[in-house]
């Protein structure tokens, strides 16, 4: 009996050794055991750090020298005889974590194609001015300038007033004269009653409000003089934008757009009388498309099709839609040589 048990144990040992030496075969029905996860600490956003900035109770690991090289404020903080010089964690009260993290990212990556947006630009500009980081401030100012200049090229909308107003307040606060002037020029295109309704008068200084009113009076004078005197404005698009904005809260001017469109259409018909140029003709086509002035657009396209020298070399030609270019080409094919004119 004991001999049989010894033989059985010997057999189990042999089978065990055999199983250990056999290759492991994976079965599709067999669940794969998950690999143990390593408990690694999250890597800091900015490598080679030697100090922590604490914002809203959350850490931002940074390098003192990197910040000091970009900001005179950080340089004084970390190199002068301030308490922060010897602190491993520097609390920054009254700051928002998301804004400050983006701000530090721009300091570390000045050439990175980081997308500044309307939602972040004012906070980033405020931090750039406070910490005197010129590179970040320049990027924010460029963004504001681009946004305002782009707004001038599109039809005005009352919903844009709060954004333009916030830019004007920011420009006034940080003495950004060129940006402030762009904002004033845009706000001047809206009806005064609408501006008051949107709180513009209450949120800018008296000096800026006066500038807005004076600019608007100048625009109105020029606009009405051109319409009443049957003359073409130097900037047709700007005049149309002004007339368009006057319709908001100013019903007495509701027919002004029709009158001006009629004037511009006549300029296409009697181009010699108005001394119309190719550049002006392109402006009229672009304006007709943008403001959906179908009568003007048809008149301008008809004249363009008769111009033998109408082409891509003209300023703003690239702004004409492909549809209008096709209409010009189709009408040109139906003309004889005697129908062509020169501007």
Task: Provide the fold topology.
Layout (H helix, E strand, L loop, with lengths): L1 H20 L29 E5 L2 E5 L1 H7 L1 H8 L9 E3 L5 H12 L12 H10 L3 H19 L8 H13 L3 H11 L4 H6 L2 H4 L2 H23 L7 H11 L9 H14 L8 H13 L3 H13 L15 H12 L10
Helix pairs in contact: 2-3, 4-5, 5-6, 6-8, 7-8, 13-15, 14-15, 15-16
Pfam families: BTB (PF00651)
InterPro entries: BTB/POZ_dom, SKP1/BTB/POZ_sf
Radius of gyration (Å): 35 Å
Overall body shape: elongated
Largest sheet: 3 strands, mixed
Low-pLDDT segments: 1-33
List keywords for this structure.
BTB/POZ_dom; single chain; Potassium Channel Kv1.1, Chain A; 343 residues; 3-stranded mixed β-sheet; 16 helices; disordered N terminus; 4% strand; mainly alpha; SKP1/BTB/POZ_sf
Descriptive report:
The chain is mainly α. Among the domains are: 51-145, Potassium Channel Kv1.1, Chain A; 270-343, no CATH class. It is built from 16 helices and three strands. It has helices at 2-21, 64-70, 72-79, 97-108, 121-130, 134-152, 161-173, 177-187, 192-197, 200-203, 206-228, 236-246, 256-269, 278-290, 294-306, 322-333; strands at residues 51-55, 58-62, 89-91. A hairpin with a 2-residue loop joins strand 1 and strand 2. Helix 13 (256-269) packs parallel to helix 15 (294-306) and helix 15 (294-306) packs across helix 16 (322-333). The model is unreliable at 1-33 (pLDDT under 50). InterPro entries: BTB/POZ_dom (IPR000210), SKP1/BTB/POZ_sf (IPR011333). Pfam families: BTB. Residues 1-46 are annotated as: Disordered. Residues 49-109 form the BTB domain.
